[in-house]
Structure formats: structure tokens, C-alpha cells
UniProtKB/TrEMBL annotation:
Residues 1-15 have a biased composition (Polar residues). InterPro entries: EF-hand-dom_pair (IPR011992), EF_Hand_1_Ca_BS (IPR018247), EF_hand_dom (IPR002048), Recoverin (IPR028846). Keywords: Calcium, Lipoprotein, Metal-binding, Myristate, Repeat. GO terms for molecular function: calcium ion binding. It comes from Rotaria magnacalcarata. Residues 97-132, 133-168, 178-213 form the EF-hand domain. This is EF-hand domain-containing protein. Belongs to the recoverin family. The lineage of its organism: Eukaryota, Metazoa, Spiralia, Gnathifera, Rotifera. Pfam families: EF-hand_7 (PF13499), EF-hand_8 (PF13833). Residues 1-23 are annotated as: Disordered.
Length: 221
């Protein structure tokens, strides 16, 4: 264990973030911006309470994750590669299936887009992507597809992430329905306003209804 730990503190939360959503759980918890100037070695009771209430995880589980997280990452944050390794522990799929998709999931977990997943972001992402309601999980899925994080999806963004989804799902006969073709078909269904861009609302609205596409698109079942 290292000496310096950076953990989210209730005192250091900011409420400014562009990834606002429609009043679901995410809006209130997306404020896990960690003030990097302030370090603290342990979670205070207030932090635990805060994280517990925002993620819906019991306090002892928050502490358990905190311990696991800092054990391997004493600086309290994961870069892309470290995230890939840590994320494997959370999933049942064999590690080789997760390699491609974990890069995209990293983008969703890194809420403030600073290139690291801090503990608060991790816990939030874990809680929402594994236990959140469908809308919240699709909200996180959208971020996986938004490669340039500009708030909407194009066909060119959807295809590569779908390819990673094929790997995750262990789909063998890719040529039967190649990701590029799925992206095109999906685009037709998602892009209700027909402007070549898919907003988060369009993405969530359609995939809430269509379970078949959702199974292929959403990494968070
Ligand atoms: Ca971050
Ligand atoms: Ca985009």
C-alpha cells in the first residue's frame, strides 16, 4: 500500500459536469469530481455515507472496494491499462473477450474525461453498470460509443464499438452480419430526426424498447 491516496470527499464534490441526464440516479452522482489538490488517506464516515447513498452499495461494500482499489493502485486512480486489468475482476467473461471493450468502458467510467478513473468514478460506474436500472445502464453504454465524447453518435463511431461487443459476446461468424452493417441498420432505427447523429435521448429511447439490438449493443447486462 502506498502512502498517498486520493479519494472522493463529500467536501470536494463539484456539481458541474456536462454529462447530465434526465433526472435519473446519474445526475446526482456524476458530481464525483475529485479535487486532486486534497489527498486523504482514509475514507471519512461522511465519504462512506455519501458513496453508499449515491451508489446504493452498503457501507461495508464501499469499504471493501476501497481496499481492493487502493491495494493495487496506491495513487487512487487507474489509467487505461490499469483499468483494463482491474475491470476483468468484475466480469464473468474470459479476459481475452474483454480486451477491446474495456477501452470503451474506460471512457464511460472516466466521467470527467481526465484520462484516469478515480475511485469515486470507479465505484459509481461499477454500481450503475452492474446494478443500475436499464436507463442508467444505457446512459453508460452511450458513453462507450461516443468515441469523441461530443454528446452524439455517428455511424463511424458505432461500428468499432460493436466490433468490440462481438468479441465480448464471443460471436464467431462476424461475416454473417458484420458490425458495419449492424451500425448502418442501427443508425436507421436510432436516428429518428435523420440528421446523421444520434443523441443520448434517441439512443436510450430506442434501446429501452428493442431488446434484440440492446443485447448486442449494451455491454452492461
Ligand atoms: Ca476521471
Ligand atoms: Ca460522437
Amino acid at each position: 500500500m502506498g502512502n498517498t491516496k486520493s479519494v472522493p470527499s463529500a467536501e470536494n464534490m463539484t456539481t458541474s459536469h456536462e454529462r447530465t441526464s434526465d433526472g435519473s440516479i446519474i445526475e446526482s452522482v456524476e458530481s464525483f469530481t475529485i479535487n486532486k489538490k486534497q489527498k486523504q488517506s482514509e475514507l471519512s464516515d461522511r465519504d462512506i455515507q455519501f458513496l453508499s447513498s449515491q451508489t446504493g452499495l452498503p457501507a461495508d461494500e464501499v469499504l471493501e472496494w476501497h481496499h481492493k482499489f487502493f491495494q493495487d493502485n496506491p495513487d487512487g486512480r487507474l489509467d487505461r491499462v490499469q483499468f483494463g486489468k482491474f475491470y476483468r475482476l468484475l466480469r464473468n467473461e474470459p479476459p481475452e473477450r474483454l480486451n477491446l471493450i474495456s477501452d470503451h468502458i474506460f471512457r464511460a467510467f472516466d466521467v470527467d474525461g481526465n484520462g484516469y478513473v478515480e475511485f469515486g468514478e470507479f465505484l459509481l460506474g461499477f454500481a450503475i453498470s452492474s446494478r443500475g436500472d436499464l436507463r442508467s445502464r444505457l446512459d453508460y453504454a452511450f458513453e462507450c460509443y461516443d468515441l469523441d465524447s461530443n454528446g452524439y453518435l455517428t455511424e463511424g463511431e458505432i461500428a468499432p464499438v460493436l466490433r468490440a461487443m462481438y468479441t465480448l459476446l464471443g460471436i464467431q461468424h462476424v461475416q454473417d452480419y458484420p458490425p458495419e452493417e449492424v451500425a448502418k441498420d442501427l443508425m436507421n432505427k436510432l436516428d429518428v430526426s435523420k440528421d446523421g447523429r444520434v443523441t443520448k435521448d434517441e439512443f436510450i429511447y430506442y434501446l429501452m424498447k428493442d431488446g434484440i439490438y440492446r443485447n448486442t449493443v449494451n455491454p452492461f447486462h
